[in-house]
Design brief:
Layout: H1 2-14, H2 27-37, H3 56-64, H4 70-79, H5 91-101, H6 110-116, E1 135-145, E2 151-160, E3 166-173, E4 178-180, H7 183-186, H8 190-194, E5 197-198, H9 199-211, E6 228-231, H10 234-240, E7 250-252, H11 269-277, H12 288-303, H13 318-326, H14 337-343
Parallel strand pairs: 1-6, 3-5, 6-7
Antiparallel strand pairs: 1-2, 1-4, 2-3
GO biological process, one term: rRNA processing
Domain C2H2-type: 15-44
Organism: Brassica oleracea var. oleracea
Length: 357
């Protein structure tokens, strides 16, 4: 009886996923799991036990959640950064790293700072400069239209570069009457929009800047002139601007899998900034510049993570699709869990790949 139990335990261990450590009674169940999990070296990973997690939120729960892995929790409490969740060599190294990892707020005195820089209405974009940015962040603020003021109308837009410099900023005159200025959140008054830039004019300027002289159909993430666009909830912002842009060039912190909830729903920008950057946004009147800076900082943190370089990093790559077919073949059932993981690829485009462009 003990021998049989030992054999079953050994077989279950053999059927343990090398990434998330789930155990399966049968090998074919492990193979099926690997087909749909898309584990890869681009997933957030515990610095202690090396467990792969689908999102940083899942990793946070693994380390400090209601039911954490105790060994990992103990080590993280002494040597883990609470912002990027990295494990450092010593508590002192952790202290130094965490001070650098935490950003300071850009909210204090923001209106005064922007006015002093003369960017309260920077309606011109210099997109011919050789130093023109390759990556930019965009954010809009909405006022209300319609009989009940619930229809979002873009009334202010801001674009920044990777160094938090304002590239473009203007108030926008909506194409229909405003019935609710939402002043408590937007800080926008009727006089701000009286002589503001018409929506069509703003749309054209932004479109030309993003495309950077390249036809829309030709824009691609690597080797092209088009700019990578960063933001939070960009689908909504672009819709309100009546602007189209290739999805391959969009980096949305609301839809990036590692930054989403374990339920696969979006986190708010307020939560992401507090949890991963260490400061608060949306305190009082909200400024689009503040949102641009926060989303760009989140993007930069994700982009410069160190992951293994792979020739074909995506499951959708033609080279890897043949492997997906092979998941159904018997020879894969003879592979070890580590060998299965070695050919598994991500189902999303990791932002670290932008650094290779």
């Amino acid at each position: 009886m003990d021998c049989r139990s030992s054999m079953e335990s050994s077989e279950t261990l053999r059927n343990k996923c090398a990434a998330c450590y789930k155990q399966f009674n049968k090998l074919e169940h492990l193979v099926e799991h690997m087909k749909i999990s898309y584990h890869s070296g681009h997933e957030p990973m515990c610095g202690v036990c090396k467990k792969h997690c689908r999102s940083f939120e899942s990793l946070r729960e693994h380390l400090i959640g209601p039911l954490p892995k105790q060994e990992c929790k103990n080590i993280f409490s002494f040597r883990g950064c609470r912002f990027c969740l990295m494990i450092l060599e010593t508590p002192n190294a952790r202290r130094i790293h965490q001070e650098r990892c935490q950003f300071s707020s850009v909210n204090a005195g923001l209106t005064t700072r922007m006015a002093a820089l003369g960017v309260r209405d920077k309606a011109m974009i210099d997109y011919t400069s050789s130093r023109s940015p390759k990556v930019v962040a965009l954010s809009c603020k909405m006022v209300g239209g319609g009989s009940d003021g619930s229809l979002d109308l873009c009334a202010r837009v801001c674009i920044t570069d990777e160094s938090d410099n304002v590239v473009f900023h203007t108030y926008v005159k909506p194409s229909m009457p405003v019935t609710n200025y939402r002043y408590e959140k937007t800080g926008i008054r009727p006089e701000n929009l009286r002589d503001a830039m018409p929506l069509k004019h703003a749309q054209r300027k932004i479109q030309e800047f993003l495309c950077n002289g390249e036809p829309m159909w030709k824009i691609r993430p690597r080797g092209g002139k088009g700019r990578i666009l960063v933001g939070h909830g960009l689908d909504h912002d672009l819709d309100r601007l009546q602007l189209e842009y290739p999805s391959s060039m969009i980096r949305d912190t609301a839809k990036y899998p590692p930054l989403m909830k374990t339920s696969k729903l979006s986190n708010s920008l307020k939560y992401l900034t507090q949890a991963y950057l260490g400061y608060d946004v949306h305190v009082g009147i909200q400024d689009p510049y503040e949102d641009c800076v926060a989303t760009m900082r989140l993007y930069t943190r994700m982009r410069y993570q160190k992951h293994k370089i792979e020739a074909y990093p995506l499951a959708a790559d033609a080279h890897n699709r043949s492997n997906q077919v092979a998941w159904r073949q018997n020879e894969f059932e003879r592979m070890s869990p580590d060998e299965m993981l070695s050919i598994s690829r991500s189902d999303y485009c990791c932002w670290c790949l932008d650094s290779l462009a």
